[in-house]
Design goal:
364 residues, alpha+beta, 11-stranded mixed sheet, 3-stranded antiparallel sheet, 9 helices
Length: 364
């Protein structure tokens, strides 16, 4: 194998050199890469570099002849990736004991068992509402966490490992929704798409519509909620704060009553302009109409849950309209009601195909 020169792609801007090699040369060990860097065999734009050097689009990387090694298993790849994240050398690969067929010079038939990756890939496929080469839009079910935490072992971010491509890229979360909130979750399949979509969210160019069920009927039937929110560490939730308080952030939401059952329950359409933690849940409680089934914010005393309704959070990330990262079209995706909300809609006689009045709410 001869010396070659490769250019850094646009979507690899800012990537660490060791990550770049892990993506393009997954069989090259971390220790071997360090030796190549120390001896000056790997260079960027003709200069010596380190494993943590950040790359820029278009830079030339000198690649010396690399020793070919046996392919790693998916589990070994994952173990090596985690070691890299800790800044450690990946663990050595255990030698495979020869089988009887190997010893006889015969090719033993491969026996493939369903792995966790297979199950995760199938589950993500079942959740998929929209997909192209840049973007994946999922319909996240109730109770599935988006990211890991204390005592959380199964989550969307971990499941996305099953979709890691042949180029080493793993799909990336663009935003988050709460564990018990159902509905639309946007995922970028490339670094460039992730960067572009994150900027779009920060610029508030994305239109997000949520559906919720609340006790009572808000008056007026359509309105704007503007508060400051700060974290209540003791209660592990957000609280309405005063302007100027430490760590208080401005939060703006719009709401509209889509339908109601007498004066007992209302179907709300909600549009968050800002994206604060628990914003819609805290705002609904602030106006005296907390979301049904909310374990943190439901504060109506002596309110019995109507028969036929499940005591689960009735909040759905219903619709997302956002410019495609390539800029040539809009992504416009809607999620269906989750089973517990569909049951409530059936009991209350709500029609989920009803016009959604909050879509055209002002942006600020």
């Amino acid at each position: 194998m001869a010396v070659e020169t490769r250019r850094v792609d646009a979507d690899e801007e800012g990537m660490r050199l060791d990550r770049w090699f892990k993506t393009h040369y997954p069989d090259l060990s971390f220790g071997h890469l360090q030796k190549l860097l120390r001896s000056g065999q790997v260079r960027v734009e003709g200069g010596r570099v380190k494993t943590n050097t950040r790359l820029s689009a278009g830079q030339a990387i000198r690649i010396p002849p690399l020793e070919e090694k046996p392919q790693l298993s998916a589990a070994e790849h994952l173990e090596a990736e985690e070691a890299l994240a800790r800044g450690e050398a990946p663990p050595p690969r255990a030698p495979r004991a020869p089988s009887a067929a190997d010893q006889e010079g015969l090719a033993a038939p491969a026996v493939r068992r369903a792995s966790a990756d297979d199950k995760d890939a199938r589950a993500l496929g079942d959740m998929t509402l929209y997909e192209d080469r840049d973007v994946l839009v999922l319909n996240k079910p109730f109770g599935l966490a988006v990211q890991g935490g204390s005592g959380t072992y199964r989550h969307v971010d971990g499941m996305l490992e099953a979709l890691r491509g042949s180029d080493g890229q793993k799909p990336r979360l663009v935003h988050r929704i709460d564990k018990d909130t159902s509905g639309i979750l946007l995922v970028a399949k490339t670094r460039l798409a992730a960067s572009t979509l994150a900027k779009t969210f920060r610029s508030r160019a994305a239109r997000k519509v949520y559906w919720a069920l609340v006790p009572g009927v808000p008056r007026p039937a359509q309105g704007r909620i503007s508060t400051y929110l700060a974290k209540d560490e003791a209660a592990e939730k957000m609280r309405v704060a005063r302007h100027g308080e430490d760590e208080a952030s401005h939060a703006i939401s719009y709401y509209a009553v889509v339908d109601h059952a007498a004066q007992k329950l209302a179907w709300l359409s909600l549009k968050p302009v800002t994206g604060r933690t628990h914003q819609l849940r805290a705002h609904a409680a602030h106006i005296g109409h907390p979301i049904v089934g909310d374990p943190k914010y439901f504060n109506v005393e002596n309110w019995p849950l109507p028969g036929g309704l499940q005591n689960r959070l009735h909040l759905l990330a219903r619709r997302l309209v956002i410019p495609h990262p390539r800029g040539d079209r809009l992504i416009d995706v809607s999620a269906p009601l989750p089973p517990h909300m569909q049951q409530s809609w059936n009991v209350l006689g709500f029609d989920a195909s009803h016009y959604d009045p909050i879509v055209d709410a002002p942006e600020s």
